Amino acid sequence: MKNKIWDFLKPIVVLTAIAAVMAGLLGGTNLLTINKIKELEADAETAAVEKVIKADTYEKSSLDFKGTTYTYFKALNGNEKVGYAFTLSANGYGGAVKCVVGIDVSGKITAVEITDVSNETPGLGQNATKPSFYEQFSGKSSAVTVVKSGAKENEVQAVTGATITSNAVAKSVNLALDLYNALETEGEK
């Protein structure tokens, strides 16, 4: 009888021990790599900020807007403010679409850098990273609408087959413009 119980429990004990060892190894790997991952993410964010607005230095700050805290960078040449870069995301077709939006001191978009569309459909939504799409935002200074064709003044043409992704980028751009205007209320501009 004792042998039958052990024959029953043996695989459970072995599998539990294997699972415990694997969980420990995964946890240890996470501890070893988490700081490097954060460092790489910060470097990527800095590179994107430098692409959307040119300046000598950037001061990272945050702004509370409608109950949410947003991160932005003040771009400076010496003591002169030349603009801002906002790191934002909005939901696309497959998940978060992340981008950095640059706005100069006159309120015009200098550039948009799409930093993550990895959850979007390859060959469709991921095409938002092509200059033919994101360069359409440059020079705009008021809310942008996405259209399927024939974009006019404050419109951009959607990526073919990826209207939801295109709208996610436009949502982030429009939010960046709202945040820029909110900085005036904060006495920042």
Explain this structure to me?
The protein is of the alpha+beta class. It has one domain. It is 41% helix and 29% strand. It has three helices and seven strands, in the order αβββββαββα. The chain has helices spanning 2-52, 131-134, 163-185; strands at 57-65, 68-77, 80-91, 96-104, 109-116, 145-147, 155-157. The strands form two sheets. A five-stranded antiparallel sheet has the order 1-2-3-4-5, sandwiched between helices. A hairpin with a 4-residue loop joins β4 and β5. The longest helix is centred in the first third of the chain and has 51 residues, at 2-52. The radius of gyration is 23 Å and the shape is elongated. The model has no long low-confidence stretch (mean pLDDT 88).
Quaternary structure annotation? single chain
- The termini sit apart by 81 Å
Largest β sheet strand count, sense and barrel closure: 5 strands, antiparallel
- How would you sum up the global shape? elongated
Order of helices and strands: HEEEEEHEEH
Gyration radius, rounded: 23 Å
Please state roughly what percent of the residues sit in beta strands, choosing from under 5%, 5-15%, 15-25%, 25-35%, 35-45% or over 45%: 25-35%
Keywords:
about 190 residues, alpha+beta, 5-stranded antiparallel sheet, two-stranded parallel ribbon, 3 helices, about 30% strand
Topology:
Elements: H1 2-52, E1 57-65, E2 68-77, E3 80-91, E4 96-104, E5 109-116, H2 131-134, E6 145-147, E7 155-157, H3 163-185
Parallel strand pairs: 6-7
Antiparallel strand pairs: 1-2, 2-3, 3-4, 4-5
